[in-house]
Amino acid sequence: MDYQAVLEEVAAYARPLVRRGRVADYIPALERVSADRFGIAVADIHGAVHGVGDWEVPFSVQSISKAFSLALVMAQSPGSQGEDGIWKRVGREPSGTPFNSLVQLEAENGIPRNPFINAGALVVTDRLQTLTGDASTSMLDFLREESGNPDLAFDPAVAESEAGHGDRNAALAHFMASFGNLENPVPSVIEHYFWQCAIEMSCRDLAVAGGFLARHGLRADGSRLLEAREAKRINAVMLTCGTYDAAGEFAYRVGLPAKSGVGGGIIAVIPGRCTLCVWSPGLDARGNSVAGAAALDHFTTLTGWSVF
Amino acid sequence: MDYQAVLEEVAAYARPLVRRGRVADYIPALERVSADRFGIAVADIHGAVHGVGDWEVPFSVQSISKAFSLALVMAQSPGSQGEDGIWKRVGREPSGTPFNSLVQLEAENGIPRNPFINAGALVVTDRLQTLTGDASTSMLDFLREESGNPDLAFDPAVAESEAGHGDRNAALAHFMASFGNLENPVPSVIEHYFWQCAIEMSCRDLAVAGGFLARHGLRADGSRLLEAREAKRINAVMLTCGTYDAAGEFAYRVGLPAKSGVGGGIIAVIPGRCTLCVWSPGLDARGNSVAGAAALDHFTTLTGWSVF
Amino acid sequence: MDYQAVLEEVAAYARPLVRRGRVADYIPALERVSADRFGIAVADIHGAVHGVGDWEVPFSVQSISKAFSLALVMAQSPGSQGEDGIWKRVGREPSGTPFNSLVQLEAENGIPRNPFINAGALVVTDRLQTLTGDASTSMLDFLREESGNPDLAFDPAVAESEAGHGDRNAALAHFMASFGNLENPVPSVIEHYFWQCAIEMSCRDLAVAGGFLARHGLRADGSRLLEAREAKRINAVMLTCGTYDAAGEFAYRVGLPAKSGVGGGIIAVIPGRCTLCVWSPGLDARGNSVAGAAALDHFTTLTGWSVF
Amino acid sequence: MDYQAVLEEVAAYARPLVRRGRVADYIPALERVSADRFGIAVADIHGAVHGVGDWEVPFSVQSISKAFSLALVMAQSPGSQGEDGIWKRVGREPSGTPFNSLVQLEAENGIPRNPFINAGALVVTDRLQTLTGDASTSMLDFLREESGNPDLAFDPAVAESEAGHGDRNAALAHFMASFGNLENPVPSVIEHYFWQCAIEMSCRDLAVAGGFLARHGLRADGSRLLEAREAKRINAVMLTCGTYDAAGEFAYRVGLPAKSGVGGGIIAVIPGRCTLCVWSPGLDARGNSVAGAAALDHFTTLTGWSVF
């Protein structure tokens, strides 16, 4: 596969869609990002990396961090016990309603539907906090090491900006706490969650750091982060729940496990082959990058690769 | 009307139901109250007061305070403007769902259904805080004056106990704040709300203090607290929304405007005649005093008084 | 009370609002009614009747029939047994959601929230069908007798028109049948329900026929239709549930038990005094007559009569 | 791959779970099936078929038919136009709520969430009825031809039994009709839907007939039923929506596109390799075969095959 040529063609296809959609504007730090950006990178399972466009420009990972926090919780709790621990507190079903919804949380006694809605990610962060003592720094450390980029950093402006607009997440966290589903104090869980979302990474960084999902759990250095079974299961959750309440549509069009963020990034996995990351800040009504989703769709059309 | 005789008969009717139901146990300070208690008092519009049983024993007013905070907000903002101010931020419709529900709040953009569900009372408290600078002390001052009992006080154990179990109310408040429906900081609103609920009053105190609802807005000293129209409207909200999601059933059986609290108290109004307060801690599944509701039901049967 | 003068003043107040709102247009037979109509009638408990405007023009009673079907079911099943029979199958709580909602029906196992939402009225009609063998003719017979107008009739165009647009009511009925909450075949229940709604009556007819609600259960001829307790209870259900999901607002503004219909009519009761009926076809967003509600509001302002 | 050996091992693993769960009992014709049954078959893409246990015993396909009706609608409307036609009337998102729910249907204007909940399948059947003139016979004809078994037949007892308990489906259909989302009369759509569900097939028949899903759209005879893209998309919908509201859990555990039925059957697809069908009547709380799901789980463990 001539990845470089494919990426060029994908970029040519997607570029007319750049600026479509709407840049996330609920916090000033995100709103300032130029809508013109477009980058895509692919990291194959052997370590080769290719990219086009703004593929080396850092952006705010936002909810893409949720895939990594889930992986780290699984990695920190080896064996099925670790899995059991987290899955008693968060479900694995698509949410069927917008990603911040409190309705299901109420109907289901404070157990969020899945780890990729905000409520679920707060529970995962809470667990990671208990396991590591620092849910945001431990994630940053992992991402630096796995991406091979020691310069990865938090964007404090984004983290503080989120905190200043965090009433909805505070509501979710207090609500789950009222059901006894948080181990750590609400303010600490929320803070680490915001700092995780405020990590800045490029398409290159994310494609490389997410390589273990394509390598059935093996890290870049060949050591094992997750059992093959666990890596497959994260992919399954990404496919069914990774793109907010558009997961069914995304599976239908793209057919790949993926996790998107409101920073405009999307990572996607072709198990046994490669990990992709695409970035363009314009979002559709459901919070997924318009040009990014189109690029992944075209990538699967050109390569014929799909999990189906 | 020989009130004393009627109250004796009512008490005889209701006493077998005392200990039915379940004493509120979500906070230790309430749980410690004896389930055996039963008291009832009536204050007629001319100032005469009668009572039987534990009618002079103070108990935690809890949600009964919601009727007074609504009245005080109305009284503090004379004219229809005052009314308009609060009714833009809280509705007047029965909730149709359990009293802590977040569902409607989400569907209706952070506007609570009515001022007597917790979310609505938080908005009213927030408004009272803005109007008076101290939403709990101003209420206590009013209740002391209106009841003629200068010894009324907060129960700090209850207030602190609520705060220690306040995640659900914190969730509601943060959630409304995320929609821009709070004027004051969340922690301050919650704290004043808890202190309002933690006021201790007897049946006597409450029946006397609520006299203005039967006197079409006139205070005990003859001065006007509310316009007649406003007093009638509070009664209307009490009838349609005052007894959690059992308001329809309560109107059907009892036929009087009423406001209940999980401390086991219920105040009820017979416009133009008298205000009643009954207390017995055992609650039904919807949070209303079992013996208290039966007592009010029997009172209307004996007297033939009902708004219908 | 000089009713005629009051009605003139009420009409003068409400007329500028005539043509406000929107005439029901979901069936052609209703859509054809002129938006200019306005009439109001009052029947006092002694049999005197007054009216102004189009108070003698027949219109489609629509949901106002629900108050009469509930009364007839109660009347047909004397004693508390009769009450028990119907209240096991339908609740007494305000719906809190739009009047056709299937949501609560699903959550609450096919038991409608109250007898005045469509689902609840279908259950009441089903019961009346079982009790009388003909739920629509028995209602027409009663209304003819009670109004003293032997010319009352169904409007076949309306009944057939409803049937042609009846998928939503068919859905409700089949859904309740799936929970075992209908005694008669779905098509027969729906048909009788549509014919009840299609009865044509004037303000005069309705105010007179509804007199038993103001007379604590006594019919025009002095015989007893309902126990006083039962009549009060129907008034309570009207106040808490009678004006679709605007019952709280209606109680707040008007303060009277009332039942509205999408034909633009509203009956209201002042217990112990009189029964009113107002008609103007323009509806607000919740299905209640705009000029009709304003007229009742002004009537209570002028007379000072309110249940509160 | 020695399929026969794998199937033997899978059967040994799953057999202890046979009789777990609960045989569907909402219609007598299903309730009579022995809970002891267990069979599994695999049809590879080259036409080889293997099976163990009761793999040649016919059972009621029930909701498995939904995968075939979707495929037939797509096949009958070549090009993207065909797709567009059906996807305007039914969504592709997981339902997030129990499979018969009316809630979402109400919130989303009569557009069912996906083609595999009952409401969605009624829409697909309605479309197939329009396209073929006979939505049930055309499906039977296709299944006979594709399975190579001309003896496939409807079970009239099941179809009639469904019709006798069909109030909930009638409610769904009338409700969608009220939104204008049905082309054919409600009774005809429901009837064809019931007959589709009442087709009897064995594991062998279903694995062979579903071969086109593993062959990227090619039929057994090599002719094209669907574009590769369309076959992949049906697999995507099966993975995200195919096992009622347990689709996330199923993807997590099994990692294969699958469609289950309350008759106890499940078909699953390994794209590019084979189609599986397993049958055991005991169902879990969500309506999926207990032993069947465990068998598929173990099959993927033994073979290492998963789409992730």
Tell me the total number of β-strands of chain A: 8
Order of helices and strands of chain A: HHEEEHHHHHEHHHEHHHHEEEH
Estimated helix fraction of chain A: 40-55%
Would you tell me the overall average pLDDT of chain A? Answer: 94
User: How big is the Rg of chain A?
Assistant: 18 Å
Helices of chain A, by number, come to 15
Family (chains A, B, C, D): Belongs to the glutaminase family.
Organism (chains A, B, C, D): Streptomyces sioyaensis
EC number (chains A, B, C, D): 3.5.1.2
Protein name (chains A, B, C, D): Glutaminase
Descriptors for this entry?
homotetramer; 308 residues; alpha+beta; Beta-lactamase; 5-stranded antiparallel beta sheet; 3-stranded antiparallel beta sheet; 15 helices; 8 strands; globular; hydrolase (chains A, B, C, D)
